[in-house]
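Backbone-to-sequence.
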């Protein structure tokens, strides 16, 4: 294409009617932007929800640990009064080991039960919000 043809084509385009975009295009662009914004909000809310659930789980484990620390020694405090210190110390260690194992098993079973419940609550919350 030489210079004259190019100039003529430019003049024809400038004098002619402009090509119009389809009428639905503007609305479609706005709809996509809205969807992207909603998706960003969903991700932020989901992160916040996951953080809250994680915090609850950590708090539950911490509370259980504190309870175990104070309750296990108290359960067998008066069992061996009057016996030698060595025997008493051995009994405490043995009893603590057994009790910790028992309460740890109970706690693990409890978490196995609570975990799906928390997942269900999370799923319901997400479905309600989004």
């Amino acid at each position: 294409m030489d210079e004259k043809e190019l100039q003529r084509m430019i003049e024809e385009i400038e004098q002619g009617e402009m090509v119009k975009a389809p009428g639905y295009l503007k609305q479609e662009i706005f709809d996509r932007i809205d969807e992207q914004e909603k998706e960003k909000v969903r991700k932020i809310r989901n992160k916040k929800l996951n953080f809250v659930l994680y915090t609850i789980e950590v708090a539950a484990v911490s509370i259980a640990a504190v309870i175990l620390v104070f309750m296990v020694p108290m359960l067998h405090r008066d069992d061996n009064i009057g016996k030698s210190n060595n025997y008493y110390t051995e009994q405490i260690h043995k009893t603590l080991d057994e009790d910790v194992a028992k309460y740890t098993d109970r706690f693990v079973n409890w978490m196995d039960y609570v975990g799906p419940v928390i997942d269900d609550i999370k799923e319901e919350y997400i479905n309600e919000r989004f």
